[in-house]
Amino acid sequence: MSAEVQIKCRNIWKIFGDNPKRFMKRHKGAPTPEALKEAGYIGAVQDVSFDVHAGEILIIMGLSGSGKSTLIRCITRLNDPTAGEMEYEGRDLLKVSERELIDIRRHKMGMVFQSFGLLPNRDVLENVAFPLEVQGMDKAERVQRAKDMIELVGLQGRESYFPRELSGGQQQRVGIARSLAVEPDIWFLDEPFSALDPLIRAEMQDEFMRLQQKLKKTIVFITHDFEEATKLADRIGIMKDGRMVQLDTPEQIVLNPADDYVAEFARNAPRERIVSVGTIMKPIDPSAEGTVLVSEKIGSVAQQVLTANRPMGVVDEAGQIIGSVTREDVATTIFTRDAA
Amino acid sequence: MTEVTASTFQSESSQGVKMPSYWGVVFGITLLALIFHYVSPGVLPDRWWPEWEIPAEEWLTTRIEWLKSEATIFGIAFKDITRAIGEGLKAPVKWAEYVLYRGHANMSWIWLTVILASVVTYFSTLRNGLIAAVLFLTPILMALFFGDAAPESITSLPKMLSDGLKGIGAKALYGPIPWVAIAAGVIILGHWIGGWRLALLCAFTMLYLAVFNVWKDTMRTMTIVVVAVPMAAFVGVVLGIWVTRSKIAARIITPIFDLMQAVPHMAYLAPVAALFALGPVTALIATVVFAMPPMARCTILGLQTVPEEIVESGKMSGCTRRQLLWKVALPSGKRTLMLGVNQVVMQTFAMVVIASIAGAQGLGHKLLYSLQQLKLGTAIELGIAISVVAIVLDRLTQGYANKETDHFAVAKTWAQRHKHMLIFLVILVLSYIAAIWFRDVTIPPSKLTYTGAEGKVTLFDPKVLARWMDGGIREFNKNAFDYINPIRDWVTLNFLIPVRNFFLWMPWPVFVFVVGAAAWRYGGLSVLLLCLALMASFIVTGFWVETMKTTYLVLIATLLCVIIGVPLGVWAARSERVANILMPICDTLQTFPSFIYLIPAIMLFRVGDFANVFAIIPYATVPAIRYTYLGLKRIPEVTVEAAIANGTTKRQRLWKVELPIAIPEIMLGLNQTIMMALAMTAITALIGSTDLGQEVVRSISTQNFGRGILAGFFIAALGIIADRIIGSWADERKKQLGIG
Ligand SMILES: Nc1ncnc2c1ncn2[C@@H]1O[C@H](COP(=O)(O)OP(=O)(O)OP(=O)(O)O)[C@@H](O)[C@H]1O
Ligand SMILES: [Mg+2]
């Protein structure tokens, strides 16, 4: 994860209430949760700092009301943060003029909303072409681009349908196509699939993975669903009461949760599909027999390791032995959640 | 949800202890004061002292005089400004008249322009079409602006055309749009919007208008509607947008709208008539002012209820502020906006009918005349005409608001997509051509005749029918009066007159005390102060007697409306079948301009307070029914089920659970009923009364506008007092019930 930093957030605060700025000043920029509560203010986002790296999928999780939406609405400037600093590709996001902000939104950012946010009076094609239309792209070109996007999300043939005539999954495809139409560099998705039923959700997740493999965008993705998160994420950030309690790779979150709250999230996670062999590997054991690949998830090698009588060697991509893995290690990793 | 019921019972019992003490004291004081007044009259003042009277009326009158003669704004005389506005507004009204029923020599030139512009547009672009239109209209515009000074070489072209047409006997080509084409247009529009059912309704209406010879009067009325609706809609949208954008605008405009809502139609005429001469322009301005607030309200509502996510997705798509408004917010609020247009059309129509007393020609004027002459047959014919036109206007605009966009349209050819328009155009052209030979195509004949071998035979003559109906009604009344008159007189003598006398006898401090007590109890200091100020305004200006007459009429009418309306509402809430019958009737009653409710009142009871109350009831009962129904329907099912589980009988449930929960809603209905009763008292003034409404009406004919403006304001003041007290009561109650 040494890729270049695309978005940098430092000490972001977002406080709702009568006069949040004055309140912040009174508490010297760092009010305690108790102070907030007493004054009747809501600290939707409290002192959050993190980076988004170019090309990664960063997933933000947390219980309802923990401030996830508010956080990305701060980054997209749909809400102005009460305090803090934000940079986008080195530019101070809080100091850009309205014109520049509109420009950034027109060309750099795309966003998908939980309840789709489609324009009810426009059909699919016009909805997808909408961001291009407001940029002033001429009609033939934007229609062509919109058609490409509609094909990308598999909605060809429905161009002249209106949002209310589409199923939830189809509407969200329109939302995705629209957000992609401007070829954004960074893509925000706020619980894009949570309004959908489980079958369609799984289908949309696969669809999403397929798209991402093709597009390789930087993504900030909000979800409630830890499984969804582990399926998609490079890193997961977990929020609680406005604070970012842990921001790490799925494996680390599963294996080394920062506190009980995080552990609770990870409890029912399918560890065998998250943890890779490299994470639980021990130093080289000369008595090892056979080998498994270091980057393999333990689920896919479990049978091999568990049925072997001796520890197995671990090899890297080049075939070099770099460690070993025992039956006990695999078993405890997979089953500890029941012990917890 | 069960908590709701629990808290209902609780607040009931806690109030049972507290309320009588406050109201007991108020009641006691009031009773003592009245007894005292009875025993030793003259001590408590029953009128304001003349030497302390504020001469608001004179002051207003001199102000108006001053405005009309001396006032200047930036060095321009005020009267010149009003005259300019008047002249400016006269032009569109005139043109609407030419097009709809009068015709004009230049009409042929206009049509030529339209045809040419369409051809140019079709073969090149809309812009070129517009340029062509402007070029072709130059002669007429020049003649309009420069009069005789316009160069004859240019202005003579249209004249040559019309002379030429006259020469070949085709004078019809500069007549108005043939009625056949207008009627066909409305029917086709009905079909486009609402299918065959609506088309049939339109066809029936058009036929009625033609057969009963009210076509021309309908068109006279429509000229103002046609001009007023776009103006009111435009101003309303602009104001609405402004309110949602600027806090200051919201703070200024919202209370003005609140006031305007309480001012009865009639009262708009006095101030406008004060500044502009009586005639169509005054009617137009009053109509626009009256019909505009609903549009603004709907715009505000439409913009404010656009889902947050849609606005945000617009922002994330990179909309500028302006794009956000025009491409996101307004289009997605379109349905609400169209309902606003529906309201504007209905209000405009209602107002134009009433504006007949300020010089608007048309249906209202004829109706007023026939009512005053007691030509009831004609009045009924006109009343039906007004009603059916109102229904058609309502259905057309509502249907358009709810119309779905046809998304299979792309697959169709241009002609298929525009078949309605094409059919209309064909009929238009054909009817113009037919009009050259058949005059009846242009204006419907005043009676249907048939020329056979034995000469002319009249098949149908609405005048004869009306006369026949007159006779019938007179006959009916002659017989029925034996029964009706005694009832009317008995009620008037034993009920109406005593109540009225009581209100006039009552010293004003008692009235102020009772109203003030209610205001203080429910609304607190601010409402109390507002009510005191409003009451003072009619007491100290010498309008006490008139105001009390209005108050008494409205109180009695409201009482009757509640007695009739609430049980009907309960019944409808109980039975689906009743609701299915009753609610459409309510809808229809509300589309009718209030004016026509005078017809049955006069027919049965002639003039007098009894007739006035009778006219108010059908108009003002509707909200009582509707709000009761809605209030009961909105009670969560769980609450009712919990009460059933508790073993309540149906009646107990109604009285102990449902009505207490629905009562805030019912009170809002009462509020509306009072507003509508107030508005209606001003209209009943047309058939004779002696209250504030009469002052408004009379002020227009006597040109004593100051008095009319004040009387109109005091009607509004009564409305506002009732609204604030009842409104705060309902709010408090809602909070107690946890449903606010
Ligand atoms: N406009 C607002 N005004 C006041 N409070 C707000 C506003 N928006 C959000 N909040 C509060 O901020 C907190 C965080 O809200 P947010 O929407 O960010 O939560 P979330 O993590 O996205 O929850 P969910 O998973 O339900 O979407 C909540 O307590 C919410 O009530
Ligand atoms: Mg959220």
Cα separation of the termini of chain A = 31 Å
Which stretches of chain A are low in confidence, meaning pLDDT under 50 for 5 or more residues running?
none
Number of helices of chain B: 28
At CATH's second level, what is the architecture of the largest domain in chain A? 3-Layer(aba) Sandwich
Percentage of helical residues of chain A? Answer: 40-55%
Order of SSEs of chain A, N→C? EHHEEHEEHEHHHEHEHEEHHHHEHEEH
- Shape annotation of chain B: globular
**Estimated structural class of chain A:** alpha/beta
How would you describe this protein?
The complex is a heterodimer of chains A (340) and B (740). Chain A is α/β, with parallel strands linked by helices. Chain A folds into two domains: 54-77 and 90-270, P-loop containing nucleotide triphosphate hydrolases (Rossmann fold), CATH 3.40.50; 273-339, CBS domain Like. In chain A, 42% of the residues lie in helices and 22% in strands. Chain A contains 15 helices and 13 strands. In chain A, helix 8 (198-215) links the parallel strand 7 and strand 8. In chain A, helix 5 (124-135) packs across helix 6 (139-152) and helix 14 (298-307) crosses helix 15. The longest helix of chain A has 18 residues, at 198-215. The radius of gyration of chain A is 23 Å and the shape is globular. Chain A starts with a strand and ends with a helix. The relative contact order of chain A is 0.11. With 740 residues, chain B is mainly α. In chain B, strand 1 (72-73) and strand 2 (76-77) form a beta hairpin. In chain B, helix 7 crosses helix 16 (376-402), helix 16 (376-402) packs across helix 19 (462-505) and helix 26 (650-684) packs parallel to helix 27. The longest helix of chain B is centred in the middle third of the chain and has 44 residues, at 462-505. Chain B starts with a helix and ends with a helix. Classes of the chains: A alpha/beta (340), B mainly alpha (740). Chain A binds chain B through residues 73, 76, 78, 102-103, 105-107, 109-111, 113-123, 130-131, 133-135, 160-162, 165, 175, 178-179, 182, and chain B through 307, 309-310, 312-320, 323, 327-328, 331-332, 334, 405, 407-408, 410. The complex binds adenosine-5'-triphosphate and magnesium ion (MG). Magnesium ion binds at residues 68-69, 190 of chain A.
